[in-house]
Design goal:
Number of helices: 21
Strand order of the largest sheet: 1-10-9-7-8
Number of strands: 15
Number of domains: 3
CATH superfamily of the largest domain: Glucose-6-phosphate isomerase like protein, domain 1
Radius of gyration: 23 Å
CATH class of the largest domain: Alpha Beta
CATH topology of the largest domain: Rossmann fold
Helix content: 40-55%
Shape: globular
């Protein structure tokens, strides 16, 4: 296959070479394997040291494979046809990659990931699945994630209607000592998986958070880990990390494309990059699933990455990258020989992003600005009658129906854009295929109108992936928050609120957090006709 990593960086190659020489003199790679926290942030040594367990996972998890595979065989033999994973961010993204890229093996359950609190998304999952043949996997490192616990309550009630022993249809993955452990014991869950606590969520693909769902769908997790171990032994990732770190000083928009077989991989990369680097006013902005345009349409803040799978049609993506190189854009090419090379790339990119963090002078293993949205969401849920919309961070929401007013609002908002900014579409909508396509059309219109990099995330999912970047990274984001009025609301069992109220509170909380961080943000409500309103919204741009 030749070199699986090809960097074409033009004039910036010298800076990367200098960085690699400096790292060699400083024993940078050796010190990472030694888990030296001084490489990142001397003031946070204990916190960093407690988050470096991922470095040993490709080897450490080998001994656990047979136990995980035995559990998966048991679930298959008992006739479970589906696994419903309730989790957010690092608890859900790697499993979703495995299902989308490899699929479930014959006879093994299909995996459905539910990481939305929108009532329509929950109802759609319920309609798709059979409560008598679905294993519900409750996945949360802390065991306190509001979305996951709310979804658990709903699906516990759903299963309980059809089972005398509903706990046999549940398993959990959580840290030792988390509230989920006690809950699982009280409810007699089938299994409790306790990953090593020294691994943060976005670096947890090779822990039980990633490997239990992978095993359940019949994936060869031993082979996946072997590819990760190859990257570990060959110290893959440092060259890429030096390139990403140095490039980000000049071009911080990392645009990622793949050939067809790998289309499910970029969302995992998006979280790893955004949540690891987006802090202290710095960051690498991952741009995934953006429609391509001619090279002359892009600003000089872009770097382009292409992932190629052997056997996929590759000429279109290859030509696109060649055209960009001809226009002096840096490009990175990565070749995979088969789908299990995703294991190699997971570990390569974990090393690369950790290393790029050292270049940027940030601590890549925390997420200091995520808690702000959680706190403000809680306040929105608890808002009393005498709380008004005249708070310091007022929640303004414009209806798409008021066309003349909306046009002027959009014009004013977009007029604040500067070269080097990016537009983040934050959709608190059900992630159905037709809505996602309509949002892609809005995104394409924004790209054409502004010539700025664009991102798209469904809420509250993106709060656990790119939310840290929006609030802690460079203040270059124009956030367009889109909400709707759910056609049908449903209660969260054992609480006094509904899922509709929860997702609205999450949208409000994040909007207030953006405003507190002095980000440019605009809220739009679409009403009940979501597709029609999105088409109208596209016309405004």
């Amino acid at each position: 296959m030749g070199n699986p990593l090809i960097l074409r960086l033009g004039k910036l190659q010298d800076e990367v070479d200098n960085r690699l020489e400096q790292w060699e003199a400083e024993r940078f790679a050796s010190r990472i394997w030694e888990k030296d926290p001084d490489l990142w942030h001397p003031e946070s040594q204990s916190e960093i040291a407690d988050r470096l367990g991922w470095l040993a996972l490709p080897e450490r998890m080998q001994d656990k494979c047979e136990g995980l595979l035995s559990f998966a065989r048991q679930i298959k033999e008992e006739g479970f046809s589906h696994v419903l994973l309730l989790g957010m961010g690092g608890s859900s993204l790697a499993p979703e990659v495995f299902q989308k890229t490899m699929g479930n093996a014959p006879g093994f359950p299909e995996l459905t990931v539910l990481d939305s609190t929108h009532p329509a998304a929950i109802i759609a999952a319920e309609k798709k699945l059979n409560p008598t043949s679905t294993l519900v996997l409750v996945s949360s490192k802390s065991g306190t994630t509001l979305e996951t616990l709310s979804l658990f309550r709903y699906f516990w009630a759903w299963v309980s209607k059809n089972h005398d022993k509903p706990g046999r249809s549940f398993a959990t993955i959580t840290d030792k000592g988390s509230p989920l452990v006690g809950l699982a014991k009280d409810k007699n869950f089938r299994r409790i998986f306790l990953p090593s606590p020294d691994v943060g969520g976005r670096y947890a693909a090779f822990t039980e958070f990633g490997l239990v769902p992978a095993a359940l769908i019949g994936m060869d997790i031993q082979k996946l880990l072997d590819r990760g171990r190859t990257a570990q032994k060959k110290s893959l990732g440092f060259v890429l990390g030096a390139a990403l770190g140095e490039l980000a000083r000049h071009r911080d928009k990392l645009t990622i494309w793949t050939t067809s077989s790998l289309a499910g991989f970029p969302p995992w990369l998006e979280q790893l990059i955004a949540e690891s680097t987006g802090k202290k006013g710095k960051g690498i902005i991952p741009v995934v699933e953006e429609s391509p345009t001619p090279a002359e349409s892009y600003g000089r803040d872009r770097v382009f990455v292409g992932f190629f799978m052997d056997g996929d049609h590759r000429s279109e993506l290859e030509k696109r990258l060649l055209d960009l190189e001809a226009s002096d854009f840096p490009t990175i090419r990565i070749d995979l020989k088969d789908i299990f090379d995703i294991g190699r790339e997971i570990f390569r990119w974990e090393i690369a992003i950790a290393s790029a963090g050292a270049v940027l002078g940030i601590q890549p293993f925390d997420q200091p600005d995520v808690q702000l949205t959680k706190d403000l969401t809680r306040k929105a849920m608890e808002k009393s009658e005498n709380t008004t919309e005249t708070d310091k961070s007022p929640v303004q929401k414009f209806s798409i129906e008021d066309e003349p007013a909306e046009t002027s609002v959009f014009e004013k908002f977009l007029s604040s854009a500067n070269p080097g900014d990016y537009v983040a579409v934050q959709a608190y909508l059900p992630p159905s295929p037709d809505i996602e396509q309509a949002l892609r059309d809005v995104r394409s219109a924004l790209l054409k109108r502004t010539r700025l990099a664009t991102t798209l995330g469904f809420g509250p999912r993106f709060l656990h992936s790119t939310g840290q970047l929006h609030k802690g990274g460079p203040n270059t984001v124009l956030a367009i928050q889109i909400t709707d009025v759910p056609e049908q609301d449903i209660p969260v069992p054992e609480t006094g609120f509904t899922f509709g109220a929860l997702i609205e509170a999450q949208a409000q909380g994040d909007y207030r957090a953006l405003k507190q961080k002095k980000r440019r943000a605009l809220r739009i409500t679409l009403g009940r006709d979501v597709i029609g309103a999105l088409k109208k919204l596209r016309e405004f741009f």
